[in-house]
Amino acid sequence: MHNKYRCNRNDYKAHVPKHELAQNRVNDVKYEPPQKFFHTHFCSVSIIASHMKKTIYIILFILLGIILQFLAHAIIEIWYINLLINNFATYGLGMTWETWVLIHNIGAVVVFLAGAYLGFRQGKYWWHRIYKI
Fold first, then answer.
1. Of 56, 65, 61, which is closest to residue 123 (Cα–Cα)?
2. Which residues, other chains included, contact 42 with Cβ-Cβ below 8 Å and sequence gap of 6+?
3. Structure letter (DSSP) for residue 45
4. Handedness of CA 15, 19, 25, 29 (dihedral sign)
5. Are 124 and 58 in contact (CB under 8 A)?
6. Average of pLDDT values for 110-119?
7. In angstroms, what is the C-alpha Rg of the chain?
8. Is 90 exceeded by the pLDDT of residue 64?
9. Quick check: 31 and 20 in contact, CB under 8 A?
10. Cα(132)–Cα(83) distance, integer angstroms
11. pLDDT (mean) for 80-109
């Protein structure tokens, strides 16, 4: 079973001085890194840091989506409430204020969830686009 968090055995080459690699090639001796140092330093730390960075990046995009939906919700709400106050008979669509409050409450939840979802999707998209891991 393949574990995506397990390091490739060839990853050590990036951290070994070139003269050591050349010496091992000449002597036909395969370089085997010390297991404990290899796994704790090069694999675990970098993978955990990368995973944490991606998680924080996506969480911040979700927060951005929530903030932007809040701003859009406020602008639309102020605009439409002004229409209702100025001419309720025309823009009320035959509904009462209580019905409009219910529509607002349901709409607020829907827009909040949409903002969080779009933030999540954008976070994943831009993470892949920028960091391409």
1. 61
2. 7, 11, 12, 15
3. I
4. negative
5. yes
6. 97
7. 28
8. yes
9. yes
10. 47
11. 92
Q: What is the DSSP-derived secondary structure letter of residue 92?
A: T
Which tokens is 113 given? 């969830």
Token duo for residue 34: 């010390």
User: Residue 102 and residue 110: Cα distance in Å, rounded?
Assistant: 12
Give me the residue spans of the domains in the chain: 9-131
Q: Is the pLDDT of residue 66 over 70?
A: yes
pLDDT digits (tens, 9 = 90+) for 2-61: 445 455 545 545 555 555 555 555 555 555 555 555 455 556 667 777 788 889 999 999
Both tokens of 65, joined, read: 């989506």
Q: Could you identify the residue written with the tokens 């070139």? A: 18
